[in-house]
Design goal:
Blueprint lengths: L6 E5 L3 H12 L3 E6 L11 E4 L5 H7 L3 E6 L8 H19 L2 E7 L22 H18 L4 E7 L1 E3 L13 H5 L4 E4 L8 E3 H13 L7 E3 L8 H12 L5 E4 L1 H8 L3 H6 L15 H7 L6 H17 L1
Parallel strand pairs: 1-2, 1-4, 2-3, 4-5, 5-6, 6-10, 7-9, 8-11
Helix pairs in contact: 1-6, 2-3, 3-4
């Protein structure tokens, strides 16, 4: 197990990378976060450096003294198919050169449409979208690098995020700020279908576990999720905690297509809209049985999220 004096390098300071950095720092780890700007709101003691991860030499320099490398980096939705493979290659090679473990934050995109079937680690990767096929190809590459002995790798596959710092999500800034103002929350697709959501604190804790445990290596794990709740159900829970009725409005597929005429994110999001027109149910029991803990209860996660957004609204 990596010791507390060893360096943990995190690529990306989005909600997952930042929450992971905060967690690792609280455990006494030396944490270096890498992003494009060299700036991030993180606890004192976390080193934040600017880096061009698409430059393999730069990535290798940033990982030179790492015991564990976490790939939480992302790019604009419209650039994912082009740039994510380059990021994966650069970070994998950098971790390999350092002799570090590599932990990759992965998505459910690799499964494609499941028609409501429960997703487990044994669910076939049958991606039918551009971004899903790209992600599946990256998974194959990571596993081949592990089999070839180039790098020790594990992947944490997360459901839709919610929680502090999470803005760009089905349960993000289009939901919590309007609710705090007593306005309708904007939900997506069929809001009455069961849907698994990953609390960002559980995502971070799961990634940290994968960085520690030898039995995590060489495979993907579905990170802990609480029992599924529909989007409407989540909205009702949020409203209940705020002591008000749940007011919602829904973005249908046609609405997303129309917004895509003017918004590059929405234009790219349309192909992933199937996630909100069929049940998205994740079974994370394999992780829970292997590592001995499960997900944060939804009501607890929502309370922390509401409090974070309330502080943000007051700034």
């Amino acid at each position: 197990m990596p010791g507390s004096g060893e360096r943990h390098v995190i690529f990306g300071t989005g909600p997952a990378g930042s929450t992971l950095a905060e967690l690792l720092a609280s455990r006494g780890k030396q944490v270096r976060c890498v992003n494009r700007s060299g700036r991030a709101s993180l606890p004192r003691g976390v080193e934040v450096v600017a880096g061009d991860v698409l430059d393999p030499m730069n990535a290798r320099q940033l990982c030179r003294d790492a015991a564990v490398v976490y790939h939480c980096a992302n790019v604009h939705y419209a650039q994912q198919v082009e740039l994510m493979p380059r990021l994966a290659s650069s970070i994998t090679e950098a971790a390999a050169r350092a002799g570090a473990r590599l932990v990759v934050l992965d998505t459910l995109y690799v499964y494609g449409e499941t028609h409501g079937a429960v997703m487990t680690e044994d669910t076939p990767m049958a991606a039918h979208t551009r971004k899903g096929r790209m992600r599946a190809e990256l998974v194959a590459g990571y596993l081949e690098a592990q089999r070839a002995g180039r790098v020790r790798v594990s992947m944490g596959r997360a459901a839709d995020f919610y929680g502090p710092r999470v803005l760009n999500s089905a349960l993000g800034e289009r939901v919590f700020p309007p609710a705090l103002r007593g306005k309708p929350m904007q939900l997506v697709g069929n809001i009455d279908l069961p849907h698994s959501f990953g609390y960002i604190g559980d995502v971070a804790r799961g990634l940290a576990t994968l960085g520690e445990r030898d039995e995590a290596l060489g495979r993907a794990w579905l990170l802990p999720v609480a029992p599924p709740v529909s989007q409407r159900g989540m909205a009702e829970k949020i409203a209940s905690q705020l002591g008000q009725p749940a007011r919602v409005r829904t973005l249908p597929r046609l609405g997303a297509r129309a917004l895509g005429l003017f918004d590059s994110f929405m234009r790219e999001f349309v192909e992933m809209f199937y996630q909100y027109t069929e049940p998205q149910v994740v079974d994370s029991s394999a992780f829970e049985q292997a590592f001995g803990y499960g997900a944060t209860p939804v009501d607890e996660g929502l309370a922390a999220t509401i409090e974070w957004y309330r502080r943000r609204e007051q700034q």
